[in-house]
Design goal:
The protein is globular and about 65 Å long. It has 478 residues and is an all-beta fold. The two termini are 39 Å apart. Helices cover 2% and strands 53% of the residues. Strands 22, 23, 24, 25, 26, 27, 28, 29, 30 and 31 form a ten-stranded antiparallel β-sheet that branches. Strands 4-3-2-1-19 form a five-stranded mixed β-sheet.
Length: 478
């Protein structure tokens, strides 16, 4: 078993790493994956994450911990959970958090082996925002409570909320046909949980084989289910492998059943998985995801931290479609604005002072008669990442082939423009080793990581037809 004391002492002994992203969450050292416990507690926003502090690879899962007041400046806190009990000795897997009268409640998946077989059950720890105590009643929601045929090995990633004195918990699962589904439990005391229903399922077995990391919430007079299916087969809409999907639909609260009406991909880029949301004190719905993909892991060999979280995003609905925008608090970090209005581009060009690796830049294309337009960033003579709109094909192409990576991982992703506008806007947010590109006010998003040398900070614009475009660029400074 691992212990909290050992993990926190190890982290304390590591030298401070000044190469970490400026405003994307990373661990001080070691591996991270899924965001966990994203919640408001006593006026501050807490984010936990799957964490293995000792190496830059996946290992026995702990819960790392950070907090913020504005979603941009984060404070590292001690590791909150370690796999140190018989009910979670194989790992403290993903889960969620909630402010309650008892304190800050964390609900997570505890892994254990029984007669050589893996069991995944749901466990509770309660704390004060810094220290957490696991309940003696753990595990509190067990796989054996599920109907016959449901998987007890794949029963994980609980998301909890409260309404009218009742606590609700959704978790990922597989049914008897090996199709992904989300199951729903209820409780009045956080300790005694009852199975209620299958909230949603993949009836035809067309959406992966396991629905991980569910989140379920009302949004603008509808309901939204987020989930991350594993092992998907590529379609025109979804890429192969692990996806993060959103579904809009109707919720029958009495029966505990969600009926999906629309389904889409959360992020069209290369690196995004396992998103989780919270409701802010001013009633915004904020989402954060793991800015990585299981099958595309890459990083410099000497870098002690591995992987990062996305920029938190504000969610809304527009014409039945999920809209994602960078959290508005990022505007407080804008400095050194540069504005270039209605520039003419024919061939490749650069604009004075439009460069850098921590910036917020919006590019608007005013022309309608052109074939393609490319933005290259994180650029020097040998490296760059490019983002191209192929207008004739109505297709975006994100390409990190030349970012300096030496592993054979996914380098290119192409997706269609989903909602056309008279003018195309692309808001590019860079933070040292990542880019998040918000199209047409958040109608779709492309996210990627890359590890181009930090002094590769040039930006260029290319079109082989004359294009009129505008740029507004801010440096992001803390």
């Amino acid at each position: 078993m691992q212990t909290l004391e050992k993990a926190n002492q190890y982290i304390k002994e590591q030298p401070e790493d000044h190469s970490r992203p400026l405003f994307h969450v990373t661990a001080p050292t070691g591996w991270i994956n899924d965001p966990n416990g994203f919640s408001l507690y006593q006026g501050e926003y807490h984010l936990f994450y799957q964490h293995y502090p000792y190496k830059d690879v996946w290992g026995p899962m702990h819960w790392g911990h950070a907090k913020t007041k504005d979603f941009i400046t984060w404070e590292d806190l001690p590791v909150a959970l370690a796999p140190d009990q018989p009910f979670d000795e194989e790992g403290c897997f993903s889960g969620s958090g909630l402010e309650t009268p008892e304190g800050h409640v964390l609900v997570y998946t505890g892994l254990r082996k029984v007669n050589g077989e893996i069991e995944q059950n749901q466990c509770v720890a309660i704390g004060d925002g810094l220290h957490y105590q696991k309940l003696s009643e753990n595990p509190v929601a067990l796989g054996k409570q599920l109907p016959k045929g449901f998987s007890t090995e794949h029963f994980r990633d609980p998301k909890i909320w409260e309404k009218d004195g009742t606590y609700y918990l959704v978790a990922g699962n597989k049914n008897a046909d090996n199709h992904g589904q989300i199951v729903l439990f209820t409780s009045t005391n956080l300790r005694d949980w009852q199975y209620k229903s299958v909230l949603a399922c993949d009836e035809k077995g067309e959406i992966g084989v396991m629905w991980e990391c569910p989140d379920f919430f009302p949004l603008d007079d509808t309901y939204v289910l987020l989930t991350s299916p594993q092992d998907m087969v590529a379609t025109e809409e979804f890429h192969n492998g692990n996806n993060a999907l959103w579904m809009r639909g109707r919720f029958d609260e009495e029966k505990g059943v969600f009926t999906k009406e629309v389904i889409g991909e959360v992020d069209d880029g290369i690196d995004f998985y396992a998103p989780q949301t919270l409701e802010t004190a001013d009633h915004r719905r904020i989402m954060i995801g793991w800015m990585q993909s299981w099958d595309n892991f890459m990083k410099p060999a000497d870098q002690k931290w591995a992987n990062m979280m996305s920029l938190p995003r504000e969610l809304s609905m527009k014409d039945g479609h999920l809209i994602q925008k960078p959290v508005r608090e990022i505007n407080q970090y804008h400095q050194n604005v540069m504005v270039y209005a209605h520039q003419k581009c024919l061939g490749e060009m650069q604009l004075p002072y439009v460069k850098g690796r921590c910036l917020d830049m919006t590019v608007t294309i005013h022309s309608s008669n052109y074939h393609e337009f490319t933005i290259q960033f994180a650029k020097d003579k040998s490296h760059h990442v490019s983002f191209t709109y192929h207008k004739d094909k109505n297709m975006f192409e994100l390409d990190r082939t030349y970012c300096g990576m030496i592993r054979d991982v996914v380098a290119i992703r192409r997706k269609a423009l989903k909602v056309p506008y008279p003018e195309l806007t692309m808001r590019v947010i860079l933070d040292r080793y990542s880019a998040e590109i918000f199209i047409n006010g958040g109608e779709q998003v492309f996210s990627t990581t890359f590890y181009t040398p930090l002094d590769a900070e040039d930006i260029s614009f290319t079109s082989y037809d004359q294009v009129e475009f505008s740029v507004v660029k801010y440096d992001l400074v803390k």
